[in-house]
UniProtKB/TrEMBL annotation, chain A:
Belongs to the TRM112 family. This is Multifunctional methyltransferase subunit TRM112-like protein. Interacts with TRM9. One of its GO terms (molecular function) is protein heterodimerization activity. InterPro entries: Trm112 (IPR039127), Trm112-like (IPR005651). The lineage of its organism: Eukaryota, Viridiplantae, Streptophyta, Embryophyta, Tracheophyta. It comes from Sphenostylis stenocarpa. One of its GO terms (biological process) is tRNA methylation. It holds the Pfam family Trm112p.
From TrEMBL, chain B:
It holds the Pfam family MTS. It comes from Sphenostylis stenocarpa. One of its GO terms (molecular function) is S-adenosylmethionine-dependent methyltransferase activity. Keywords: Methyltransferase, Nucleus, S-adenosyl-L-methionine, Transferase. Transmembrane segments: none annotated. It comes from the Eukaryota. The keyword RNA-binding does not apply. This is Methyltransferase small domain-containing protein. One of its GO terms (biological process) is methylation.
Length: 122, 256
């Protein structure tokens, strides 16, 4: 699971009001290099919740993202490279996503989060 | 496959992974991929950023879409979900075998994504469980979830449509597999009320079933609450597809 996906995922347990962002428990993080596409990054920059993204990247052991970001930073190659790396090249391979409200853990196995709810959570 | 010589590569059956609890690619999967191939020029010019499959099963369809549209270098990213954990695992293997990848999530339809992914999906492909079955077979564990569609095969389709509407971007397209028993014209009318135009991209009849692959897109001129127009729109789109249908009829005798 990439941080792009983490930024789009919320806990949807019945009764949970603020299910975003899920806290990351990282057991194994892998890096997979992919080609950069600036247009894609610029488009996603508008959609990403930056604070959740930075916190998630730190939980994955990556500390190169600034606390705050604005669109003018996209002109910097260094920023773009780091944004690309954190968004698309870091993968949570093993670990869990934790609901911020209930503490319920959603396991991540072989890079795949399991968001299925138990009967009493639907 | 000789007739597909000039077409882009799609997923190869010998590279598609399998599991006893996962639906294998069959007529419906092939019809959906043929629809994507038939529409490939439009898809490429559409420049989607995020593509999504709900109910990815073996991974045959999302792999084919990734081969048609390219990956990160082309600025395209893929998300695929399935309620069956085995299916998501098999999809991962199928994609890896073809050298492509998607973000995979085990979830019911798009639960967990509806809030933050809203309005971001440019292309959605869905081959839903469309077989009419008793209602209590819907969503049970394992391979049954891949086909059991409840009354008229509509139970899951009717849950997916509002989710698709929520997730699709302004320019978003949805490709949906339906069976005649699902009453596709009524599905089109329902979507018209939400502001979507529709057309049949591929129609295919086998001994057992008659399939329609319908494409939906947001249309500013499509006004809801006009049932007459909905019906003529559906039939009109049928008529405009006749040339395409006769083309496809000639090329698909080798499936299943």
């Amino acid at each position: 699971m990439r941080l792009l996906t983490h930024n789009m995922l919320s806990s949807n347990i019945k009764g949970v009001v603020n299910g975003f962002p899920l806290r990351i428990e990282a057991e194994k993080v892998v890096e997979k290099t992919v080609e950069m596409n600036g247009d894609f990054l610029k488009k996603m920059f508008e959609k990403v919740d930056w604070k959740a993204f930075v916190d998630a990247s730190r939980a994955m052991g990556y500390n190169e993202l600034p606390e705050e970001a604005d669109p003018s930073m996209l002109d910097s190659d260094e920023f773009l490279n780091n944004f690309h790396h954190a968004l698309l090249e870091l993968h949570l391979e093993e670990g869990a996503l934790v609901c911020p409200e209930t503490g319920r853990r959603f396991p991540v196995t072989k890079g795949i989060p399991n968001m299925l709810l138990h009967e009493d959570e639907v | 496959m000789a007739s597909h010589k000039q077409l882009p590569r799609t997923a190869q059956i010998r590279l598609v992974s399998s599991h006893q609890e996962v639906y294998e690619p069959c007529d419906d999967s092939f019809a959906l991929v043929d629809a994507l191939l038939a529409d490939r020029n439009n898809l490429q010019e559409h420049h989607p950023s995020l593509c999504m499959e709900i109910g990815c099963g073996s991974g045959y369809v999302i792999t084919s879409l990734a081969l048609i549209l390219g990956q990160e270098a082309s600025g395209v990213n893929y998300i695929a979900t399935d309620i069956n954990p085995h299916a998501v695992e098999v999809t991962r293997e199928t994609m890896e075998a073809h050298g492509v990848g998607a973000e995979l999530i085990v979830t019911d339809i798009a639960a967990g994504l509806e809030q933050r992914l809203a309005g971001l999906v440019d292309v959605m492909v869905v081959n839903p469980p469309y077989v009419p079955t008793p209602e209590d077979e819907v969503g049970v564990e394992g391979i049954t979830s891949s086909w059991a569609g409840g009354e008229n095969g509509r139970s899951v389709i009717d849950k997916i449509l509002p989710v698709a509407d929520r997730l699709l971007s302004e320019k978003g397209w949805l490709y949906l597999v339906t069976l005649t028993a699902n009453n596709p014209s009524e599905i089109c009318q329902q979507m018209r009320k939400k502001g979507y135009a529709s057309k049949i991209v591929v129609q295919r009849s086998t001994e057992e079933e008659s399939l329609h692959i319908i494409k939906f897109w947001r249309d500013v001129d499509t006004v809801g609450d006009e049932p007459d127009q909905s019906v003529s729109g559906f039939i009109g789109s049928l008529l405009t597809q006749i040339r395409l249908l006769s083309y496809w009829r000639g090329t698909n005798s080798d499936k299943c």
